[in-house]
Batch of 3 targets.
Target 1
Amino acid sequence: MENLRGTNAIVTGASRGIGVYIARALAAEGVNLALAARSVDELEMVRAEMEALGVRSIAIRCDVAKASDRAELVRRTEAELGSIDILVNNAGIERVARFDEALESDILDTLTINLEAPMLLTRAVVPGMLARNRGHVVNIASGAGKVGVAYGTSYCASKHGLVGFTNSLRSEYRGRPVGFSVVCPGFVTDTGMYDRWDKNGIRAPKIAGTSKPEKVAKTVVRCITHNKAEVLVNTPPIRPLVVIANIAPSIVPWMLHRLGYSKVFERVMAADAAAADK
């Protein structure tokens, strides 16, 4: 999809964080937007900003974990904007905990919101895209979808699932006019998660570095216009580490420990526990 002007997109998790930046980047390309999230007031502010950029935009309260909300999101988008050309599955949650102490409800919520909902939303829109010979789905995964980190078992499982889901779709629909991409950001500044880290004096491991949300958003647009399969958004040293991790997975726990990943997530876990006790 080289020319995006006048197309229609759904962006989930659009009320804050990376979702807002993705919406801005798509609006800059002339894409009309159906913005979905649970936070109505914040979502309305984003909708107004997108309208000011010159595109049509609607705000739809949606809990992607609920089938009825997903169905209403698709219905309203088609009724108010028209056919759905682009779906960006961005909504997601993260829970940091020791696996043996993690709440079963947190595990299920993470898998439902991060993996099940994107799969089912994609299933809802792909038939129409195939019928119109036009469309693209972008799944926002994570660097944790390429390498498993300690204390993030459910999150990593869900993001690994998104990577596999996307790659499977590309194989299944190879040669068809609908594209599928997965974007794997590393540590992204100026977002809710990293802001929470800042407040507690937590920094990403030095070798990992950080990325700006604008870079992630530009990557999403490039994935759509160039039908990219999988893009890791992070500092250059991470790429060879991911390759090594896939070639020699047995060294991953040792490698992440030595690079400081485990210590960072231990601190996040402690900070979250302290906040919960207040």
Target 2
Amino acid sequence: MYDHREIARVMDLFHFEEHSPGMIFWHPMGWRVFRAIEEFMRRVYAAYGFEEVRSPVILNRVLWEKSGHWEKFRNNIFFVGGLDADLGDVSPDYALKSMSCPAHIAIYKDHKRSYREIPLRLMEFGMIHRNEPSGTLSGCMRLRQFVQDDAHIFCREADVKDEIRNFLNMIAEVYGAFGFLDFSLKISTRPEKRIGSDALWDKAEAALMDACQAWGYDYEILPGEGAFYAPKIEVSLSDHLGRAWQCGTIQLDFNMPQILDLAFVNDNNHYEQPVILHQAVLGSIERWIGILLENHGGVLPLWLAPLQVAVAAISEKSVSWAEVVVQRLKRIGVRVELYKGDRTLSKKIRELSERKVPLIAIVGEREAANASVNLRRLGVSGQQEIPLAQLEAESFSENYIGSH
């Protein structure tokens, strides 16, 4: 079973509704996974010098028109408007956010910037809406509403190579933590319809290629696939069927700063125009979860599993010790639940295994007397009696994999 929608049904993670096509209804277990990914990424971004921000979901069309997105993407924008009192019609003065760059640029422009603030690195778990055609919607892989780890770096041109190195280091670190050791890079060059001069595009494309070569990464060229304002490096993963999915991306943008009149005061007390790097490490978090579920068959690493430890009491006589086990694990942040009731132990284990629970701690009268649990690991035959303290240490270290 490798369809992420079917895996999600068995694991009770999320579902889809015809009333909201291309949008996910997250269940408690699925939202645990989502939040665990967010928290992990929040720590990674902080370690690389990013500050988290939050911007509105609805922005006035004037901002989208200035950035060029209104003209380029209006067929994929969800319009929001009020009733025009004179015309008796809805006026689409606002749009749901389809990307976060105009909002982050607005944060940058809120006050005069100094060279001491540069590079300025902003990131947001941005709620994105895109009016994708209904025929293209495909579970988590293509949605109309999703969350991106949307980040923007405002820097000098001289900083670009180091910022791209940081991005590639983030990619290797983050993807490795999720079990993806191989990824490929593609450089998407200028499209036919674009803004800006050829000279700026030449400079931006050359900088991306130079950075990849300088840091030892091979890449493939995708002619004409860049954004209308900037070329980009795309990071792709292959799933178990050999399909390539674009996940991470970084765009080198000389044009938006020029069009939107961005500046900072340099160390000579003159105004200088920054460069913008638009980046996302995961891309859509929902798509990332879909890829994870399919590639691992729902077997997530312990630190990410929605239910990390299930404590199964053999009988009513061992429920008291089972409750102690649950409470001690909860105190150190482990996602744990107690399974008791009149079902046989074999039925409990079979149900929990189908839900891909990594650790099942079986508790009987002997374990209560020994302050231990009989531990069963998903995918490993047999079980092992270990002290509760050992389970606490193992769960704690795995649970905080992203803390460093």
Target 3
Amino acid sequence: MLRSLRFRLPALFLAAIALAFLVSSVIALRLFQDHTRAQSLNELRREAQGIAQLYVESALQTADENRAAPVFAAAKLEAATGDRIFYVGAPIFPGDESGLTRLTQAEVGVDVRGANRVITFEFTPPGETRSYLAVSQPLRLEEGTTPFGALIVAKPQTELRDAWLTLVSRLAFAFLIGLAVVGALAWYLSRRITAPVLALSHAADQIAEGRYGVEVPHVRGGDEISHLADRFGQMAVRLAEAEELERNFLMTVSHELRTPLTAIRGHVAALREGVVTDPELAEQSLATVAEETERLGRLVGDVLDLAKLDAHRFTVLTEEVDMDRLCERAYSTFSDEARRRGIAYERRAAGAPVIVTDGDRVLQIISNLLSNAFRWTPDGGRINLALEAANGSVTVDVLDSGPGIADEEQERIFRPFWSRDGRGTGLGLPIARELALALGGRIELDSAVGRGSRFRLVLPARLV
């Protein structure tokens, strides 16, 4: 369960969200702390400046009227601002009834009495355990004179921490809500993603056991999972076809091997046992054995050629090849069959190009194409062999008047072991195409049901 994709995806999403929240929370808290501290210092500076100005104006007015120093109502100011007010300096204030707390320089820990500027610092007042964030404002009766003291306005740092804790608690609450929402969404998305993957995995297990008829789930949409499902379905179909082709091939090859072997065995047995005594009949038996042996050799050679081409272990020789003479050789091979079956068999050549290629393999390609044409052309039909050199390439066309090939079968006929009528090995055209590719060329097909077919061999015209 813990190793399944359905669990790991939501866990990964949640871990990523938690990490992102942790990093953003640390950054936000740090920024909030700096902002809160800066805002508190600004407030303390304004309060200290205002209270100091209020006292100086009141003190100057009292001095002009020869009255006693004014009572500094510190308690009321502290209640109004919510901050503590302290004084460091000359003893010019009335007694403690004003509520103002006087501190010595040592109790403050910072030289604020003689400072000519506003100072910010932290300290712990006598008799208290809390630390305060403080601002000192110098006191002077006239501008430019030496300060006679400093007014300190301070705020407990616990108030800042309380603000931070409030932010942290609200962030944590928001995180829990967000985590729940993201968790539900991640679980839903993981099920949407993993459901077809699990179905494909189950289908793959069945295919691995040899059950190629498994139903592959259809995934809607144009994403990667949908593409994978489509390709997986195509793979399953191709595997089923490959298995069917393999069975057909084994049966076909067994039949193709058994037929000549039976004939060879029969004729050899007749010759050995003396059943055939007539020299002419004996010669015919030996000719039949030779033909059937050659047939076996061609079959085994086709299988070996296909295996070499698939394994990319095929060697191509290069020599000067007279394409006109080569086509003549291929053409003459089927002349007797054409006369016997009444097929209009013609050959034409537009030029006699000599190119550098593997002549034996080119002859094999053309022979395979002609063999396919004679197989599908009915008696009394028409087959043409045409050679032409133009536009930097040499083309050899094999045209027949057979039944034609449907569009959906034009790709299949080049698959090994596939036969339209279930007869034959189905190796001729696949080998021809692979050989053409090995020689740097290609085979093109133009066919339609009812109008015959044209197979075109295109080779690069590396002319001599």
